[in-house]
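On clarity, I found the account of how folds are encoded harder to follow than it need be. What matters is that the chain and its backbone geometry are given together, residue for residue. The format is easy to grasp once an entry is in front of the reader. For illustration, here is how one protein appears when written out as sequence plus structure tokens.
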Amino acid sequence: MIRSMTAFAKSSYESKDFMLDVFVRTYNHRFLDINLKLPLELLHIEGDLRSVISRHLSRGRIEMTVKASFLKEGIYHVHVNKPLVSRMIQETEALREEHGLRSETDLSSLLRLPGLVEVQTDVQAISPETLSEIKEIVETCIRSLVTMRSQEGQILAKDILERADSLQKMLDNIKAHSGDYARSVHQRLEKNLKEILTGNTFDQSRLMQEVAYYAERADVTEELVRLGSHILQTRKLIEGNEPSGRKLDFLLQEILREINTIGSKCDLLPVAQAVIEMKTEVEKIREQSQNVE
């Protein structure tokens, strides 16, 4: 069954070694577009996380944010620029004495100044087991996302299949009205041309060739067969298990092409009405297909 491209999922995890929050949101997109926001500690496994995502998703814009805090000793190292701190304290004391200020230097405020404190992360201290666990948590979140996309896809599939049934009924209606259309065009052309050329010398063989040519152009049998095949393929795509968004886009283009050809070749009023209704239905399916993976 088809899957939607819009969904949201999140996962949170806490152990004695780390805390992790994963947020994933997906949107419509023609291709697979992965955007990751990772903490510094996990930048070196970005490629692995992209592989996790691409194993489960084939289309859509993917926005994933990962927040991590590591609790194990030896991962974070705090470096204080002590010479700069001392100089800042000296300058602060000098300003207080110069202007007669009584407030004391607030160390917490001082340490918030840019460049005084630097936190360095030793990514090598993060164990392979921890990284593997993080990848599993991300994959769990992606699986939840896929489940949500599948649930929304069921709604899309139901709507598209109903419209495919409607197209098939309209196609059957066109077949019922166009069955004798080519023969009637042949007879009408022959009758009109004979009336016009009565009493004049003309090449009857050439006349019959011209009549056959225009009658053949009015025959929509091939278009009706192809259109029926395309509608059937559409149903198979929707009911199948593979990602089908791009194939569905292509099929809808082919369906619309056949409908337009039928409308241009057959000028019967019931057929013209059915063509308009079919084009409207195809446009509604195309709107839905924009959200199919």
Notes: DSSP finds nine helices and six strands in the chain. The chain has three domains: 7-73+125-148, 76-121, 152-289. The chain has a mean pLDDT of 84.
